[in-house]
UniProtKB/TrEMBL annotation:
This protein's name: Uncharacterized protein
Ranges annotated as spanning the membrane: 5-24, 36-56, 65-84, 96-117
Keywords: Membrane, Transmembrane, Transmembrane helix
Organism per entry: Deinococcus cavernae
Length: 124
């Protein structure tokens, strides 16, 4: 379960990071993202974070699990209040996607925390 949490998080972050990094200017204007470099910096960060999750899945330890859980919970803490506060103004599909994403990231963080056993069977 622990490695699956890392890999599923990476499956979410890498495509979003790539899309934001190479976001077309027309789409950025449509979304209201200005300046364009801000979206590209965010895309680069998400891409780097996603590739770190792929690498961390090979040998998860306490620090990596803490990073995964902390990062996912920070994303949930950023997305969820924004969606709940301005949800009426959002298109219903976008609101559902963002709520589902928050739920999935929260579940992955919780799953990683619950699956991590310090020392594990190999440490005994």
């Amino acid at each position: 379960m622990l490695r699956a949490a890392f890999r599923l998080t990476a499956l979410l972050l890498i495509p979003v990071g790539l899309y934001l990094y190479f976001i077309p200017p027309d789409v950025a204007r449509l979304l209201g993202v200005s300046p364009l470099w801000l979206a590209r910096v965010l895309g680069g960060l998400l891409l780097a974070w996603g590739t770190f999750q792929v690498a961390a899945a090979q040998r998860p330890d306490g620090a990596k699990v803490g990073g995964l859980a902390g990062g996912n919970l920070l994303l949930v803490a950023t997305l969820l209040p924004a969606v709940l506060r301005s949800g009426e103004a959002m298109p219903p599909l976008l609101r559902a996607v963002l709520l589902g994403l928050s739920l999935l990231l929260g579940a992955l963080a919780l799953g990683a925390i619950l699956s991590y056993a310090p020392g594990g069977a190999r440490g005994r």
